Amino acid sequence: MKFFSKTEVLFSVKSFTAAMLALYLAMRIGLPRPFWALMTAYIVAAPFSGPTRSKAVYRFGGTFLGAFATVLIVPAFANSPELLSLALALWVGGCLYVSLLDRTPRSYFLMLAGYTAGLIAFPAVNDPGTVFDIALARVEEILLGISCATVVHSLVFPQSFGPVMLARLDNALRDARNWIADALAPHSKGGDEKTSTDRRKLAGDITELRMMAVHLPFDTSHLRWTGNAIHALQERLAAMVPLLSAIEDRLLALRQLGALEEGSRWRALLADITAWAGARKDDQPQDPARLRAAIDALAPPPSRHAGWLELVQLNLAARLRGLVDAGAEAQTLRRYIGKGASGPLPPEARHLPGVPVQALHLDRGMALVSSLAAVIATLAGCAFWIATGWPSGAAVPMMAAVMSCFFATQDDPVPFIKGFLVWTIYSVPLSAFYLLAVLPAIHSFEMLVLTLAPVFLVLGVLISRPATFGRAMPFLFGICGTLALQDTNTADAASFINSTLAQLAGLALAVLVIGVFRSVSAGWTARRLLRAGWKELARMGDGRQAPSIPEFSARMVDRIALLTPRLAMAGAQQDLQAADALVDLRIGLNMTQLLAARHELGRSQAALWALLEHLSQHFEARPRSDAHENARLLASLDNALRSVSAAQASTSQRDALAALAGIRRDLFPQAAPYQPSPVLEKEIR
């Protein structure tokens, strides 16, 4: 293990200081469970001040809502243990379901509201008249921990989140520039497995930036005022993903057709775009307007007799123009963000429209399954508690509910809960030492700090490291949980053993229930993500859904980011190896453009609607593939191309031809080249 760094030591010292301050104030005020304040200070601690403050806000809101719900639920069902158990389980499951539909750190708010009700309610069941006092004390203890952590991490050598955010942003921009250079290189082969993995990583970077940006309003740097510009830049990066993927494929098609020979005007244009995209601030890059004019000059004019080569070039020109537009806007937005990070944000960057986070991929089915598993685990714990009459049994449903919520976003939560269980068991001897030997022997707060410091300072460093966080945090939770859940003034060996066994039983119950009702493999989730994309394309084809291009791109890029690690974990599963979400993204982009252009194409609308219907049927049937249906779809595509080629010249006609050529190339890359012929007025059925 590497030696502790200064940053890790600083984080650990600040976290310990905040925890001790919270513990001291809780003891001075006379709160019944002062170690709740200590544990909360560690829970909300983060290496950067922005995430610490955002977690503090969400945690307090979730705790208050959970306490409020407890005060309403427990007295209402105090005389009926079964109904009380059902009400609390449904509250936990309902809060978890809604939280899983928010793909940002804000989800912490409702998830916490769910299991906080269990933390307060289950210990108060035997004496429901005290539930208000317990809830009030818990809110006060948690508020103390939150406040101390926020003050210490914000004022004592605050670590701004801004530089990290800017570094991630610049890293994504650099990856995009590298992709442009690779895609537009004279002999680029694009499409091999390593290249595809690198492309999908960019999608992961974009999604990660979206999640990180939620903390920006709470940061201590000027960057917090640039949130709209950062979201807008993320959208431009998301737009580049299908554009660059399409450009790579179209250039490959042109090479196969022998249209990218040395010295061609296309090669010169590609070199100019590469130089422009990679230019530094002190260079004199080409004006984007000149690049757009050069692209338009090379694009062949649409005509009834346009062949496959001309259509591919038309599609390539449209995608290159889109790339230049997105790249120019990204460069402008990055300059705005740079100005806003060091001073006033330019007025034109303050009210930029953006894609809402709700537009990202949401899996309501898995959210429902996760919430049902939490309900079943909580009810099973309550049933065990009621059946055995175990005085310490309240911890069984309580821990089962907490674990069901903690790891609900994982495909298979069982390994994580097992790890939590193992490291909680490892913490038991140290918990017993503190509770039964140290605390009864000390009589001053100073001695308490000295006895806690060695263990907590080392654990604080390990928590700050991603590699050891998953082991250090459960170990710390085990110690803090033991001290928080017990009355440290009256604890004895019997109560400690009972309480510990009940907590471990709750963890084991969560492993059992989640393993039966909730665990899925990475391959299963990958197929579900792919099917979600296909269903959306099917809805677009039959007119049920016509999303905006930015929203569709953001959602599909998000799916690619979610898909990438799962494809790696799924291994050599043949059906997944053959899937390519980037192709689906390109097809979806072309379909949105067709839907936007179809109203301006007069008599060609019939052929386009027939094609969209066939596309809908094609994606509805995926992953099955039928040779006869594929032949019908190809014929429908060619018929639409002929019909639109014969339409009146317009921007809509050009856009539709480019989109149709892209769909044909993406769906049937090995098909014989399209051949123009007289328009078929009759719909292909």
Protein model, in words:
- By secondary structure, the protein is mainly alpha-helical.
- 73% of the residues lie in helices and 0% in strands.
- Helix 12 packs across helix 25 (651-667), helix 23 packs antiparallel against helix 24 and helix 24 runs antiparallel to helix 25.
- The longest helix has 35 residues, at 308-342.
- Residues 679-685 have low confidence and may be disordered.
Give a topology summary:
Layout: H1 6-29, H2 35-44, H3 49-76, H4 81-100, H5 107-124, H6 131-155, H7 162-183, H8 193-213, H9 227-256, H10 265-277, H11 288-298, H12 308-342, H13 364-388, H14 395-406, H15 414-441, H16 445-463, H17 466-485, H18 493-517, H19 522-541, H20 549-570, H21 574-577, H22 581-597, H23 605-621, H24 627-645, H25 651-667
Helix pairs in contact: 1-2, 1-6, 1-16, 2-6, 2-17, 3-4, 3-5, 3-6, 4-5, 4-13, 5-14, 7-8, 7-9, 8-9, 8-20, 9-12, 9-20, 9-22, 10-11, 11-12, 12-25, 13-14, 13-18, 14-18, 15-17, 15-18, 16-17, 19-20, 19-22, 19-23, 20-22, 22-25, 23-24, 24-25
